[in-house]
UniProtKB/TrEMBL annotation:
Protein name (database record): ABC transporter ATP-binding protein
Phylogenetic classification of the source organism: Bacteria, Bacillati, Actinomycetota, Actinomycetes, Streptosporangiales
InterPro entries: AAA+_ATPase, ABC_transporter-like_ATP-bd, ABC_transporter_ATP-binding, P-loop_NTPase
PANTHER family, A to Z: ABC TRANSPORTER ATP-BINDING PROTEIN, DOXORUBICIN RESISTANCE ATP-BINDING PROTEIN DRRA
Native source species: Nonomuraea spiralis
Pfam families tied to this protein: ABC_tran (PF00005)
Length: 268
């Protein structure tokens, strides 16, 4: 079967800073996949290039076998994206936002209305459906963003930190919707820093560090008999500075700290 996502040698630099240093990301179709890595590892940059939002300096990426940059229309028809720092049309209501997205995707009006109503109900947004998006909370924004990304029934769904700032109830709702989505054979790939969540949800994991993939495969293989958190620390933690070095002043009693010496200008 064709992989849902396959990139080869994806590369991006900003001036002297290499953000993504040749990434071969593979996600089998039907996976619930997690992309993990420390801050600055290159996750957002990689997802942006794979979803056609950012042009790579080198390498290729394909979705369901379609090249992201040579066949953008086929790719965009197949993907749903919940990007980092999601920007929404703030002066539309949640329902209007979904109807607008559906019409942009070319879905017949009656179908869009039915799908929008069902998505709003599943996301527990029916009551807020006619409220302006500008007045939505962080969790509500994530949920309406996810609803908009699902409306056209994509084959592959990309989510950049979908659970960040989301309360446990909303998080369970998002999880249920995503589980239903992958159970029907579609693919989810999401980035996260929360190892427990990735371990609980994902059957496939890609670990990035320093712009590279440092481990990738089925969850059991990547964690290799330990927890994902331990495996993550083994894979990316070793090269990092000792977190306990320095900071001897932090938490010291105020009376214990040396007094600043008065300079001649301080004295009248
Ligand atoms: N527009 C930009 N201009 C300059 N440097 C950038 C830009 N975007 C990303 N970078 C750099 O590229 C590297 C990778 O950033 P990226 O946002 O992809 O990491 P990330 O893994 O998503 O991090 P986080 O987990 O903190 O969201 C970082 O060193 C970052 O500073």
């Amino acid at each position: 079967m064709t992989d849902a996502v396959r990139s080869h040698g994806l590369y991006k630099r900003y001036g002297a800073q290499v953000a993504v240093a040749g990434v071969d990301l593979v996600v089998p179709a039907g996976s619930f996949a997690g992309l993990v890595g420390p801050n600055g590892a290159g996750k957002t940059t990689t997802l942006s290039m794979i979803t056609g939002l950012l042009r790579p300096d080198g390498g290729q990426a394909a979705i369901d076998g379609f090249d992201v940059w040579r066949d953008p229309v086929a790719v965009k028809a197949r993907i749903g994206v919940l990007p980092e720092g999601l920007r929404l049309f703030e002066r539309l209501s949640g329902r209007e936002l979904l109807l607008y997205n559906g019409r942009l995707r070319g879905i017949p009006k009656a179908d869009v209305e039915q799908r929008a109503g069902e998505l709003l109900a599943v996301m527990d947004l029916t009551e807020a459906a006619d409220k302006l998006v500008v007045d939505y909370s962080t969790g509500m924004r994530k949920k309406i963003g996810l609803a908009a990304a699902l409306l056209h029934n994509p084959s592959v769904l990309f989510l950049d930190e979908p659970f960040e700032g989301v309360d446990p109830v909303s998080s369970n709702i998002l999880t249920d919707v995503l589980r239903r989505f992958t159970a029907s054979g579609s693919t989810v790939i999401f980035s996260s820093h929360v190892m427990d969540l990735v371990e609980r949800l994902c059957d496939w994991v890609s670990v990035m560090s320093g712009g590279h993939i440092v481990a990738q495969g089925p969850l059991e293989q990547v964690r290799g008999g330990s927890s994902l958190n331990e495996a993550f620390m083994r894979l990316v933690g070793g090269s990092r500075a000792d977190g306990e070095a320095g900071l001897t002043w932090l938490g010291a009693k105020h009376g214990d700290q040396p007094q600043a010496t008065a300079t001649p200008q301080d004295t009248p």
